[in-house]
Design brief:
Layout: E1 5-10, H1 12-20, H2 38-43, E2 46-54, H3 61-81, E3 86-88, H4 92-101, E4 104-111, H5 120-128, E5 131-135, H6 159-171, E6 174-176, H7 182-191, E7 197-201, H8 215-218, H9 221-224, E8 227-230, H10 234-237, H11 239-246, H12 258-272, E9 277-279, H13 299-308, H14 313-330, H15 332-339
Parallel strand pairs: 1-2, 2-4, 3-4, 4-5, 5-6, 7-8, 8-9
Helix pairs in contact: 1-3, 5-6, 12-13
């Protein structure tokens, strides 16, 4: 059986910035792009991808906005460079059309609320350009939200942070709760009338890494209709790997396997149900991936492992594609209303080609 993937997080654009001076040439050569090539996407049956337009949180203010637009431009450039493989998509309808054509529907996600530079107008401009979610923080606390991996300053969300969540709901931009402090997770679930995602996290109950989702938060996800998207980051997946990192990375790193990623999938399905789990590999965002999940072509290995544990084809389709698509569809009315509103501008003015 062929199982499509709607992946929540891939950092190819940042990889191109850091390693390729934003060149989009040769992206079907694993020597050029070891974790994500066009052929790997096809082998992995990736039907839709949220490309991260990430900016390191050491870049702030106007420079963060500039760098975000450079990331958006990079996605637009590589999508345009491979039109037979990739199709730019903003809406759920466009995802469906691209999937029908056999092209990877290419959406974007902003990975860090500091990238809007405290401007709701900037948030809206990213949404118009095709950024369909925003991760409220990256790894550091910023002026309006606390991060899971930094000292808290706001007790969760500031008053402006609450405005951001409300505006994201209004314009149909998905609230992403990976990276944020548990206080922000809870407050966002209190505030959001639309389903949230965790674009690339694992289960804290299996591995108590601060980037993972605590059980009391997981338990609230079904009530919101959201999706927890399991990631492949080794120290988030494996307790032994986390402990090795925390101890200073001395000696040989403990191996992390596809079976351990499957353990997180099992845990979340059993705790909150099959309708609230997805995949967000964080491919290109780390230097090493689990054995058996080493690039964008290896999702079938995870599906095979889960099938061997008794997951049905229906379950696997929900994990791989359907649940992520349902969340996007839940935002369709608000997003299309926003795009058609009087304050909208043409997507072309943002430098993005469809």
């Amino acid at each position: 059986m062929t199982l499509d993937v709607f992946d929540g997080h891939n950092d190819l654009a940042w990889f191109l910035r850091e390693e390729r001076d934003y060149s989009v040439e040769g992206l079907n050569d694993p020597a050029v792009s070891p974790f994500t090539t066009m052929d790997q996407l096809a082998a992995g049956h990736v039907a839709a991808q949220y490309w991260s337009v990430y900016v390191h949180s050491s870049i702030t203010g106007a420079q963060a906005v500039k760098a975000t637009w450079e990331q958006i431009d990079a996605v637009a450039r590589f999508v345009t460079a491979y039109p037979e493989r990739l199709a730019f998509a903003r809406t759920a309808a466009e995802v469906t059309a691209a999937r029908r054509e056999g092209r990877v529907a290419s959406l974007m996600g902003v990975e860090g609320g500091q990238q809007i530079d405290e401007s709701l107008a900037m948030l809206r401009s990213y949404a118009r350009a095709g950024a369909r979610y925003m991760t409220l923080t990256w790894s550091t606390t910023h002026s309006w939200a606390d991060s899971a991996t930094d000292e808290p300053q706001h007790g969760g969300l500031s008053a402006f942070g609450r405005e951001v969540v409300a505006e994201m709901n209004r314009i149909g931009m998905i609230v992403d709760l990976s990276h944020v402090a548990p206080s922000v997770m809870h407050q966002s679930l209190d505030l959001s009338a639309l389903p949230v995602i965790f674009s690339h996290s694992c289960a804290f109950g299996l591995n108590p890494h601060p980037r993972n989702i605590p059980d009391d938060v997981l338990d609230r996800v079904p009530g919101n209709g959201g999706v927890a998207m399991m990631t492949f980051v080794p120290s988030f997946v494996s307790n032994a790997r986390r402990e090795w990192v925390e101890a200073g990375e001395q000696g040989t790193a403990p191996e992390v396997t596809v079976a351990e990623v499957a353990d997180h999938c099992d845990y979340v399905r059993e705790r909150i149900g099959i309708d609230h789990i997805g995949l967000g590999g964080d491919i290109c965002g780390v230097d090493e991936l689990p054995t058996g999940l080493g690039d964008a072509g290896q999702y079938p290995n995870l599906f095979a492992e889960l099938a061997s544990r008794g997951w049905s084809e229906t379950d696997l389709r929900k994990l791989g594609f359907d649940n992520a698509m349902r969340v996007l569809e839940a935002h369709e009315e608000a997003y299309t209303r926003f795009l058609g509103s009087a304050d909208d501008v043409a997507a072309a003015s943002a430098g993005v080609e469809s």
